[in-house]
Amino acid sequence: MKYVSAVFASLALAAHGAVISADATNYVGAFASAQDGDTIILTAGPYALTEPIILDKKLNVTAEPGTIFQVADLSSIVFAFGNMAGYSSTLDGLSIATATGDSCDLAEPYALQANFSIDITGATVASNKVNLKTDVGVWHNERKLNDFYFAECHYAVDHPTKMSGGVYKLLGNCRAQLDFSVDFDKLGGTDGCGTTIENFATFTSYRAQVEAQWDEFVEKVDDEKELRLPVTREGNAVTNLLVQIDTVRNVAATINAKYKSVEIEAAINLVDVGYYDSWNHSKIRLEIHLPAPYTVTNAMGVVGRNEESFEAEVSALSSYSVEPACVGQAIGDDCIQNVEFDIVACDLTGEYSLNELTIGCQAEDNNGDPGVCPNMDAEEPATVIFFIDTNNFCEIEEFELDALFDLSIKVYDSDAYVVEQDTFDLGSMSYWQITADTSASGVALYNAEVTYAERTTDGDCSGFDDYLGEIAALEEGEFTQTYEPIGQTISIPLQVTAQMACATSDRTGNAITMNYTVLVDYDDGSARRRRALDGMSTRDAGEVAVDKEAGVRYTAEDLAQAAAVGASVAAGATAAQQEEQGDTILIVGGILILLLLCCCCCCLVVGVVIMRRRKAARQKEEAILSQQSNMGFNSSVNFGGHASQIKV
Q1: Residue 89: alpha-carbon gap to chain centroid
Q2: Which partner for 192 in 46, 412, 525, 639 could form a disulfide, CB atoms 3.0-4.6 Å apart?
């Protein structure tokens, strides 16, 4: 671009702001004192930068030929624009050189080429924000950033309530970098950004479209030729964020327009990727320039496909529409008409044409006289050939975010969870506590729970049943856990049993490792759902395993005692069952004693009855003998084993 035309363009964009000249000795003060709308003209020479030039106001910066910013390396930041006013600034004519010998110039926008791209190069979660870093292509002269979007949020409206930290940077490699953040708890929900959230067994995916929009001032057809009339071109670039990072969309187009009767100029003034469906149905608009009294007279035509893309086929073509013919212009004035069409494709790469573009004469000139068009060939329509080169929109690249939480675990001597302990006696209680740390990500947790617990040990477990396992499959009371949201801890009391330690008589101690799988729920702005309620599946940040080793010591007497009370699998009972069995034995013993007492009482009663009957029999016998004696009987008779003399 010629320096004179660049200055004129910058002055036009300055909207009547002040014009400030600066050089390498005072440019820092010039940028600091400039006001919105001012134009700063940098004089030729080297500008050694030790720190970025930060702009938070709208300035138009134009450099004379030979203006070179010297920076350390290609990744150094030359300019950083930190707010919406700063994004509206324009740079023109700058060159950059590094200490290692690399150099570059800002790109010149041409009428027949449109280049807008966005590529997400980094994504992290920190301080309760999703932080995105994007490469938005080569920096073009007199291009300004209008706005950028994350799903349904856009920075101009949703800063700082949902989006923040937007910085638009010019780097030492002449490329542009756009960084911004979205509040993690504003990703979803009715008051959030409308991110599509999908819940899976152990993770959650977030899908959102990321878009940037620019305007640029186009003055040249190529390096040798300038447009008769400059064009302000709108362009966008789109990519899709999955939380893995998804589809990158780069769009570039070239147009050649020729007509034998009159010189036609054409320029792309709009590239809107995904305009119709936020995916692969895009809008393209060309601006046709003809010298009056010539004009395009047909209202519609067909967009044709001249050759197939080597990457993918276009899935559909459509008709184009043309703005109404020009009328009432003076000879030589520019007749400007927009031609608009849509293309449905994942990959637009290929050669296209606007067919049957009819060139006619304006109905009347500026004086009201009929238009006269020499050398008009009314029978032969014009054809505009244009080229589009893109990436495949439908290819998906995964880019995983950093973990949202870190887990740690400790073992304590009591339910106060204060004093750590790593060795326990058989039969004692151990107290395990897991902490979910989100200090790095800043994400708010509202629940965490152990879903699986497994014991490993250096002992012989062949004689024991499996210990714990899937927590949801255990009987009530077998496993207790308590989540404390302030400290983000899970507390787990466990009795050290022979089954837990796989304790056997040939050893005096075992090392055991408890392996826990922890499921964490976090706040992402969408409705909170938890497994414990209505059987609904929870949105899971992830299942992460954590483990801790502890020692169990015991003697043969401890093991025998444990076996006696049923601590081992052979005894087949827990401590609670042992106590219950002891109570049962006492009851049965009491019943046996009562039965024995009853038997003794019965025997005593029977003995008394027998004795009384014998006594009565003897008394009766004595009475009979006495009576017989009185009557003179004397005979020997045996009654009951006793001999008596009976007299006759």
Answers
A1: 33
A2: 525
In terms of Cα–Cα distance, which of 373, 340, 369, 338 is closest to 359? 373
| Claim: this prediction has a pTM higher than 0.85 | no
Bridge-based pairing of strands 281-291 and 334-344 is antiparallel
On whether both 126 and 53 belong to a single domain, the answer is: no
Mean pLDDT by 10 residues, the chain (648 residues): 40 63 95 94 95 94 95 95 95 94 93 80 81 91 94 94 95 96 86 79 70 90 86 82 38 44 73 78 86 90 66 58 94 90 77 82 90 70 71 51 71 91 85 86 81 84 86 89 90 88 78 82 60 34 53 64 51 39 59 67 59 60 48 33 27
Whether 96 and 115 share a structural domain: no
Distances (CA, A) of 518 to 79, 321, 433, 489: 46, 59, 12, 11
Shared domain for 128 and 276, answered yes or no, is yes
Contacts of 153 (CB under 8 A, 6+ apart): 162, 163, 182, 186, 192, 193, 194
- Nearest residue to 188 via CA among 147, 133, 163, 151: 151
| Count of structural domains, the chain | 3
Instruction: Concatenate the DSSP letters of all residues of 569-616 into one string.
Output: TTTT--HHHHHHHHHHHHHHHHHHHHHHHHHHHHHHHHHHHHHHHHHH
Q: Pull the structure tokens for residue 26.
A: 């005072």
Predicted local distance difference test score (pLDDT) of residue 614? 61
Residue 614 is encoded by which pair of tokens?
């014998």
CB-based contacts of 391, cutoff 8 Å, min separation 6? 248, 249, 250, 347
From the list 189, 190, 194, the residue with the least C-alpha distance to 150 is 194
Per-residue buried b or exposed e for 432-452, using 16+ beta carbons within 10 Å of the residue's own CB: bbbbbebeebebebebbbbeb
Taking the alpha carbons at both ends of the chain, their separation in whole angstroms is 175
User: Residue 515: which residues within 8 A CB-CB, separation 6 or more?
Assistant: 453, 454, 455, 456, 545, 546, 547
What one-letter code names the amino acid at 330? A
Which one, of 460, 470, 548, lies nearest residue 498 by Cα? 460
Give the torsion through C-alpha atoms of 73, 75, 76, 81, to 10 deg.
160
**Phi, psi angle pair for 135, to nearest 5°:** -100, 120
**359 CA to centre of own chain:** 54
Contact 586, 537 (CB under 8 A): no
Q: For residue 358, what pLDDT is reported? A: 87
The answer on 541 and 482 residing in a single domain is yes
The label of the residue with tokens 């019943």 reads 591
Please tell me whether residues 531 and 418 are part of one structural domain: yes
290, amino acid identity: L
155 & 276 share domain = yes
Spatial CA neighbour of 120 closest among 131, 128, 112? 131
Rounded Cα–Cα distance for residues 126 and 435 (Å): 18
Evaluate whether residue 646 is within a structural domain.
Answer: no
> Residue 202 carries which side chain, given as an amino acid letter?
T
Strand, helix or coil for residue 425 = strand
Is 82:55 a contact under the CB 8 Å cutoff?
yes
Question: Which range marks the domain in which residue 56 is found?
Answer: 1-106
Spatial contact of 219 and 226, defined as CB atoms under 8 Å apart: yes
